[in-house]
Amino acid sequence: xxxxxxxxxxxxxxxxxxxxxxxxxxxxxxxxxxxxxxxxxxxxxxxxxxxxxxxxxxxxxxxxxxxxxxxxxxxxxxxxxxxxxxxxxxxxxxxxxxxxxxxxxxxxxxxxxxxxxxxxxxxxxxxxxxxxxxxxxxxxxxxxxxx
Length: 147
Description:
By secondary structure, the chain is of the alpha+beta class. Helices cover 44% and strands 20% of the residues. The chain has five helices and seven strands. The N and C termini lie far apart (37 Å).
């Protein structure tokens, strides 16, 4: 059974709001690395799933991912390293997938831009290694997206 678009978008919005508030992103990791999958639309496109809450990630640590553990990623590292690298490699983000592996497949830079805009909206302070602040990071992502 496929989820409707409204449910998928609602879970995506929840992800954006919660990671901006907590400044944490969750993934599944084992000794060999991070959990990943193939896109539902194209087997050639890799997906790395991320969750806004530890419990959501843990719920997906079953079947092929049963030996994975929910692992936190600081939001600044996620935005600067993960999202930028994923965009460079053409890897999408699986956002707040449920235990049946249903959820949004998002472009990493678009997702990063949504998180940065949410951080700006809630006036949250966050420090980056490579950017002077949220506005500079947003400007660089927008420039990259619209090339």
